[in-house]
Amino acid sequence: MVGAGGIGCELLKNLVLTGFGEVHIVDLDTIDLSNLNRQFLFRHEHIKKSKALVACEAARKFNPHVKIVAHHANIKDSQFDIDWFRTFTLVFNALDNLEARRHVNKMCLAADIPLIESGTTGFNGQVQVIKRGQTECYDCNEKETPKTFPVCTIRSTPSQPIHCIVYAKSYLFAEIFGTSEDDSPELNLAQDSTDNAGEIEQLKKEAQALKQIRASMGSEDFPRKVFEKVFTEDIDRLRSMEDMWKTRRKPDPLDFDKIMQEAADVRADIAEQDQIVWSLAENFQVFSASLKKLSFRLQQLRTDTATNSATPPPVLSFDKDDKDTLDFVAATSNLRSIIFDIERKSEFDIKRKYTKPSISCKIPRD
């Protein structure tokens, strides 16, 4: 079974209660607070622990006669080769991303092992049996570009330019200039006497960090605070999660003071050069300038509506035809791409290819 998330928890329980004699679980993720509303094998005290290992221990209680083996690893690792796949009678996919599904599909075809492919989108689910020579495979039909992306990919392990653009447009822009996620009830859990009290408290602190930074909007050091929170502190925190980087390159945090010195020589109108791929220093300048412009605009809106208490607090919305909002998203996504060693895109390409209305950038809680 590949994947121990929403589908994986339910599937593992069913396999164990059905009486399968030996089940192997492969998952590289760790448990997040947002998983707990539907991944029922996990509890608060399991936060930041391996999904595969915790699911294994939890499922054993349903049927102690079943041998369950956990692999906290990436299914694309070299240890899971074709010979390894051939040792199984059946393979189940419980994955949330296209790339991994395609990989397992190819390995099962090469090993001639049946694959049960499954997935969900919103309230819709699908399941497909794949057997070489008897059914069509996962890649027999062209898959459209995903319209939503797992939050863990967007926040922690981006691998494509679109992941960085979604982060900039649907998360960071909204956090600073729109409606924040930090008042989510998922982060308002009462502490208890279990070991997770410290973990929950830390998550609360992280959720409040951007809210506190927003309170300094308009101050001289506002751009520095935003930059260091997003491109330095958050990246340092990700780097500290050693298990996450066993099979992939660690992200590199950015140094505000060093890049600011480099940006001193950047031409003032660099944001108008939208068909070139900006350098690190150029992205820094566009990011800082757009942040200041948008902050001023939002503060003006707040001043204009301050006398009317019945009016909801004003927010800004992303518009690809609004130069300031497009500058912010383009520069933010490129800075994040540099951190994760992902291909950067010109602002022209970002506007033309990645911010069309047909591509929804809502981030699901998955």
Which tags fit this structure?
3-stranded mixed beta sheet, two-stranded parallel ribbon, disordered C terminus, elongated, Arc Repressor Mutant, subunit A, mainly alpha, 2 domains, 366 residues, 12 helices
Question: So what's the CATH class of the largest domain?
Answer: Mainly Alpha
> How far apart, in Å, are the first and last alpha carbons?
18 Å
* Class inferred from helices and paired strands: mainly alpha
How would you sum up the major sheet? 3 strands, mixed
* Strand tally: 5
Q: The CATH topology of the largest domain is what?
A: Arc Repressor Mutant, subunit A
Q: Quickly give the CATH architecture of the largest domain.
A: Orthogonal Bundle
The overall pLDDT, averaged over residues, is 85
Which H/E pattern describes the elements?
HEHEHEHEEHHHHHHHH
How large a portion of the residues is in β-strands, by DSSP E? Answer: 5-15%
> CATH homologous superfamily of the largest domain, by name?
Ubiquitin activating enzymes (Uba3). Chain: B, domain 2
- The amount of helix comes to 40-55%
Shape: elongated
- Low-pLDDT segments: 182-200, 357-366
Give me the side-by-side strand order of the main sheet: 3-4-5
Question: What would your notes on this structure say?
Answer:
The chain has 366 residues and is mostly helical. It has two domains: 6-130, Rossmann fold, CATH 3.40.50; 151-354, Arc Repressor Mutant, subunit A (Orthogonal Bundle), CATH 1.10.10.520. Helices cover 43% and strands 7% of the residues. The chain has helices at 6-18, 51-60, 82-85, 98-111, 151-155, 161-177, 197-214, 222-239, 256-262, 280-305, 323-339, 347-354, and strands at residues 22-26, 67-71, 91-92, 115-121, 124-130. The strands form two sheets. The chain has a three-stranded mixed beta sheet, with helices on one face. α6 crosses α11 (323-339), α7 (197-214) packs antiparallel against α8 and α10 (280-305) packs across α11 (323-339). The model is unreliable at 182-200 and 357-366 (pLDDT under 50).
